[in-house]
Amino acid sequence: MATELVPSGHPTTLPPANGSFWGRLPVLKQLRQSVGLQRGMLVAGLAITALFLLVAAFAPLIAPYGFAQLRDDSGPFGAQQPPSATHIMGTTVGGYDVFSRVIWGTQTAVLVIVVAVVFSIFIGILLGLVSGYIGGWLDRVLVVIGDAVYAFPSLLLAIVLSIVISGGQSSLWGGIFAAALSITVVFIPQYYRVIRAETIRIKAEPYVESAKMLGASAPRIMFRHVLRNATRTLPIIFTLNSSEALLTLAGLGFLGFGIEPTAAAEWGYDLNKALSDVTSGIWWTALYPGLAIVLAVLGITLVGESLNDLADPRLRARRRVKARATTATTTATAAAAAPDTTTEEKS
Amino acid sequence: MNDVVEITDLSISFATDGGTVRAVGGVSLTVRKGEVLAIVGESGSGKSVTAKSILGLLPETATTEGAVLLASRDGSHANDIVSLSPSQLREVRGTDVSMVFQEPSTALNPVFTVGWQIAEGLRAHGTVSKAEARREAIEILRKVGIPEPEVRVDHYPHQFSGGQKQRIVIAAALVLNPGLIVADEPTTALDVTVQAEILDLLRRLRDEFGTAIVLITHNMGVVADLADRVVVMYEGMVVEEADVKTLFASPQDPYTRRLLDAVPRIGQGRVHTAEREAARAGARAARAAEGESALAPVVEASHLTIDYPGRFGRKGFRAVDDVSFRIAPGEVLGLVGESGSGKTTIGRALGGLTRITGGSLTVHGFEMLGFSERRFKPLRADIGFVFQDPAASFNPLLTIADAVAEPLVIHGRAESPRDARKRVDELLEAVQLPRSFGDRFPHELSGGQRQRASLARGIALEPSLLIADEPTSALDVSVQARVLELFAELQRAFGFAALFISHDLAVVDLLADRIAVLYRGRLVEEGTGAEVLDHPTDPYTRRLIASLPVPDPVEQAARRAELASIQADSRGR
C-alpha cells in the first residue's frame, strides 16, 4: 500500500526502473501521462513540430524548384505571378517560387534552431553550474554580465553580432552561424540563470551535504549530484527557446541582416521583400512565409507549454476516479473525464 | 441532537498519476458535544483526509462517498457536507466547524496583522464594524492567553513565538464560537514544553467553551493527555474505537497493541545501557591489564563556541555557547534540546560542515578550529553521518546501490559503483534490506527503508564515529521503533561511537549511554540516562521531562499536576 501511494511519475524523480525505454524518453513519458485538453495541446504541438521537421528533412523532394531558382526550361518564372498550376503559391517580387522558398525555409530554420540551442545550452549549463556551486566573486561577475546582456534589446545585440560574425558577406553556413551565434549570446544568460538558480537550491539539499560529508570533491558533487538534478526544467526552456530562436532569425531576416536569397531560403527575408506587395494587393508573397513562421512557432510553443504544465503536479490533469452510479460526488467535473479512460484499480 | 458530527460509511478516493488510490474506505464515527475525539494512525492511514472531509476541504482530485452530517451551532439542524455546494460550504466553515493547522508559521499570512486575520472570519460571516471586529479580536486573544492583547492585536505574525502563533491560529478558529474544531497535528511543529501549553489551551476550550475537538495526531502521548475517546485508523479503516482509558489499558486490535508497544518510554533503555557499560568496563580492564593506556576520546569539545555571523553592523548569533563534552570510543552520547538549542549545529561542526569559532573541538584528535578541508578529508572516512530526512538525503537520480557505494568510491575503496556492488549487498543485508532494493530509486522505498539505506551508507566505511541527526523524527512510531532497534544492533556489531541528536527524550534514552541536554546553546546538564532523567538538577531539564506526555492517561494526569507545580515554581522564583 505504501509504495502505491508514491505517484509513479513524480515530477522530481525518474520513472521507475521497470519502465520501458520508450516510456522513459522525456517527451513520450509526458505524452503517456497527459489526459484531456493537455493531451490535445501536446499532440497538436508534436504533430506540427513533426511536420516541420519532416518538411525540413525532405525539402529537396517536396520543393518543385530550388530556393534560388529564377527560371526553368520554359523560361523565367516572372515576378509577382499569382498562384497557378505551375507556381501553386505564386512568385515573389524577385521572381522566386513562393512554395519552394517556404519549403526550403524550414531547413534554414531547423539548422539555426539546432545550432543556436546546442551552443547556448552547453555554455549556459556549464557557467550556471560552476557559478552557482562555487559562488563568490566569480558568481557575482557572471551575474552582472548576464544582467548586462539582458539590458540590451536582444534584436539589437543580434544585429551587431551578425555584422561582426559574417562581416557583411553572406553564405549559407556563414548566415546560419551568424544568426545562430547572435541568438546564442542572448540565450546563454537564460540557461545560465535557470541552472544557477537550481544549483543554488540543490546545493543546500541534504543529499549534497551528505556527499560533502563523505568527502566528495567539488567537481564530483557538481557533475554527479547537482547537474542531473538541475537540468529537469531544460526540456521546457529548450522548446520555448527554439521558438524564440526562430522568431529572432525571422526578425533578423526581416531587417535585412539575414541570409541572402541566393545562399538559402529564409522566411524573414521573404517577408521583408513582400512589404510593398501587401499594399498593392499581392497577398501571396507575405501570407505563406508568415503562416510558416506562425505554424512552426505555434507547434514548438505548444509542446513547451504542455511540457511545462505536465511537469507541475498542481497543473497536471489526471484521470478522474469513476464515481459509482449510486453516489453523489461533491465535484461535478468528474464528467469531464474522457469516456475512454479506464480507471486502473491498483490495489 | 447530541452528536456534533456523524460520519457514516465514508469512502474517499484520489486520482493520481498511478491510477486511483483509495485513501479512506467505509469509515463511520461520531463526535459528541464537548468531547475530544482523537483520530490516531500512521502516515497514509487516512486520518487527515477523514478529518478534512468534515470541512469539505478535500482537493479537487478526490471523490467522496457516504455521508458527513454536521450539526449547526445552535443544534437546530444538520448538513450533509458531502452534498453541499461550495457557497453552502462557506456558510458552514467558521460558524459550525473550523480548523487548526499543523504549522502555525505558514497558516498565518505574514503581511497582515493578527487582529486583521482573526477579524477575517467575522467579516466573512456577516457585517461587523471595524471597531467591533477589533474588540472581538482582542477579546478572543485574551481568552487564548496572549498577554497584552490590546497592543498585540496590531502586531504581525513574525513578532510572535511559535507557541503564540499557534494560540493565534486557535483564536482565529474560535472567533465565531463553532461547535467543533478540527485540529490537524496541532502540536507536531512545536517544542515539547510549548506543546504542553497548547494542549492545556485545547483542554480549556473543551471545558470552558464546550467546544468539541477532533484531534488528529500520531503522538500517543498527546492522545493520552487530551483525548476523551480514541479512533485508531489503519490503511483507511477504523480498526478500533474506545474510551481513552480503555484503549490504553486494554487495546483490543492487534494493530493498536503494536502501535502502543512501539511508543518509546523513558526508562526502557536502561538494561541495554547497563549491558554496554559493563562490556566497555570489561574492555577497559582488559586493556589496563595488558598495560596499555586508556583510549583517547573520539570527540572532545572544550568551551566550544559557534557563532553565525550577523548582517553588516549587527551582532552575530551565538548558536553554541561554551559547551564541553567528550565521547569515548564505542560510546553513544545523546544530545537533546528543543529547536534552536544548537544541537544540529554541534552535529554539523563534528562533520566539518559548520566551522567553529571558539574553544576547541577535536575529532579523532584533529583540531576543528580553523581546519582545512584538504587535511580533514582522509578523516571523513572515519565519520559516518545519518541525516534527518531520509527522503531528501538521497540523490533522487541515483539508485540505492549507487548511493551506498558513493563513500566507497570517493575514498578509493572501489573503482566504480558496480565494483562496490558486493560490499553494498553486504551492507544492505546488515541493515535488513533485500539485495534487490539496491536497484531501486529512493522514491520507490518507504521512509523506514530509506532511513535503513541511509544507515547502510553511514556505516559503509566502518567509521568509528557516527553522527545521527534526528534520524527518526520523520518516521512513524512503529517504523521508528524498528530503525532504533537496528541502530542499536549495528552499534553493538560495529562498535562505533555515536552522537545521537534528537528532540525526543524517550528516543535518546533508548539508545544513549550518556545524555546531554542543550538549552539555548548552553549545555545545562550531562550524565547517564538514570542521572539526567530520574534526578534532573537543572530547572529546564525538569520542565522538559515533565512536559513530555507519556502514553498512559492515568499517569499523564498525575504528571500534568507535577508540571503545573514546576511551572508555578519557576514563575515564583
Automatic annotation (TrEMBL), chain A:
Indicate the segments forming the ABC transmembrane type-1 domain, all copies.
Answer: 106-304
Asked if Flavoprotein is a keyword of the record, the answer is no
Q: Which protein are we looking at?
A: ABC transporter permease
Q: Which GO terms describe its biological process?
A: transmembrane transport
Quote the biased-composition stretches of kind Low complexity, using this chain's numbering. Answer: 324-341
Q: Which CDD domains match?
A: TM_PBP2
Give the UniProt subcellular location, in the record's own words.
Cell membrane
Q: Which domain of life is it from?
A: Bacteria
What residue intervals traverse the membrane? 41-63, 109-134, 141-165, 171-192, 234-259, 282-304
Q: Which UniProt keywords apply?
A: Cell membrane, Membrane, Transmembrane, Transmembrane helix, Transport
What does the similarity note say?
A: Belongs to the binding-protein-dependent transport system permease family.
- Keyword Cell membrane annotated: yes
Taken from the UniProt entry, a GO cellular component term is: plasma membrane
Membrane topology classification? Multi-pass membrane protein
Protein source organism: Herbiconiux oxytropis
The region called Disordered is annotated at 322-347
- The main location class comes to membrane
TrEMBL record, chain B:
A Gene Ontology cellular-component term: plasma membrane
* Highest rank taxon of the organism: Bacteria
* Compartments where located: Cell membrane
Q: Which UniProt keywords apply?
A: ATP-binding, Cell membrane, Membrane, Nucleotide-binding, Transport
Q: Which GO terms describe its molecular function?
A: ATP binding; ATP hydrolysis activity
**Which family would the database say this protein is a member of?**
Belongs to the ABC transporter superfamily.
The protein's name is ABC transporter ATP-binding protein
Upper classification of the organism: Bacteria, Bacillati, Actinomycetota, Actinomycetes, Micrococcales
